[in-house]
């Protein structure tokens, strides 16, 4: 049990009559990269705030490092790093000053802060910008600085809420590389993300949340194997609306999903399924056989309807 850093049993969070988190069970072990996936309103942020010891649970049991975050909040927060969804850097001071100020919040000696600042600026590839004001930095640089700042206290768990939202592809991949390095150094990562490729890249294990509950748990590969098929055949037929065309391929593949612009046929053998489509006399305008992805699992479990 010493390797279990986070343990939640029946964890619940309510706001008046609204239940944001509805009795979830979670365990995260040391050195693991663990993800929370779910649509807006699924309960991810409420869960992360409870884990960060900034919002008390309404019910259930939550232990972080074996401590109760309600009664031992300060001790828990001292061992956490928290990277919020929105960068909240002080843009009127320099890059290195942001790290110095944050280090003082933890009561670290100035010598330790200087050493950690040098290490973290090198880690975040910001050494050459250390004397620059934060305001003119690019979005990717600000995000790397926010993560570097969250590591100033050498945390055992790093909480990352939507770490690459709004970044361009190059910045996202640089950040993924930094986070992978952290994991190899033994830092435990807990991540929320809307990007399925990010979850597949970064998470050893994850849960899919919907309406405050956990609807699936496992590694990205095991979730795909359990909740989807090996391949997906995407078909565009010469029809005006594919929503009413699913019966044209009924019985082909394990499952058919009709979207306005295409049909998705879930199958273990995409090329053979396409041959079966042709055998029915259908001539698709276009067809693609691709590997099933975590996004297919996510949409199957949570639906395609927008949640405001």
TrEMBL record:
One of its GO terms (molecular function) is ATP hydrolysis activity. It is a peripheral membrane protein. Belongs to the ABC transporter superfamily. Residues 6-236 form the ABC transporter domain. InterPro entries: AAA+_ATPase (IPR003593), ABC_transporter-like_ATP-bd (IPR003439), ABC_transporter-like_CS (IPR017871), ABC_transporter_ATP-binding (IPR050763), P-loop_NTPase (IPR027417). It holds the Pfam family ABC_tran. This is ABC transporter. Keywords: Antibiotic resistance, ATP-binding, Cell membrane, Membrane, Nucleotide-binding, Translocase, Transport. Coiled coil: none annotated. It comes from the Bacteria. GO terms for biological process: response to antibiotic. It is found in: Cell membrane. GO terms for cellular component: plasma membrane.
């Amino acid at each position: 049990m010493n390797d279990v850093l986070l343990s939640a049993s029946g964890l619940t969070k309510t706001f008046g009559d609204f239940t944001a988190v509805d009795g979830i069970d979670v365990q995260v072990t040391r050195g693991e990269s663990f993800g929370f996936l779910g649509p807006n309103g699924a309960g991810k942020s409420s869960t992360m705030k409870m884990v960060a010891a900034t919002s008390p649970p309404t019910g259930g049991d939550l232990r972080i490092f074996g401590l109760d975050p309600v009664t031992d909040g300060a001790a828990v927060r001292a061992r956490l790093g928290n990277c919020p969804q929105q960068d909240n850097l002080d843009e009127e001071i320099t890059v290195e000053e942001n790290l110095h100020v944050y280090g003082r919040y933890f009561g670290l000696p100035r010598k330790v802060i200087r050493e950690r600042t040098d290490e973290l600026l090198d880690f975040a590839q910001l050494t050459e910008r250390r004397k620059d004001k934060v305001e003119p930095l690019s979005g990717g640089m600000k995000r790397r600085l926010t993560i570097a700042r969250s590591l100033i206290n050498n945390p055992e768990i790093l909480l990352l809420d939507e770490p690459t939202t709004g970044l361009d592809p190059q910045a996202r991949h640089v950040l993924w590389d930094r986070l992978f390095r952290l994991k190899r150094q033994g830092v435990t990562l807990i991540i929320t993300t809307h990007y399925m490729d990010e979850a597949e890249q970064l998470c050893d294990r994850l849960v899919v949340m919907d309406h405050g509950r956990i609807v699936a748990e496992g590694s990205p590969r095991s979730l795909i194997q359990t909740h989807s098929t090996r391949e997906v055949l995407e078909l565009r037929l010469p029809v005006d609306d594919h929503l009413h065309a699913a019966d044209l391929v009924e019985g082909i593949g394990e499952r058919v999903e009709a979207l306005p612009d295409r049909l998705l046929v879930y199958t273990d053998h995409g090329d053979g399924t396409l041959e079966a489509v042709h055998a029915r006399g259908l001539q698709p305008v276009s067809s693609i056989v691709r590997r099933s992805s975590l996004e297919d699992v996510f949409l199957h479990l949570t639906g395609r309807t927008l949640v405001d």
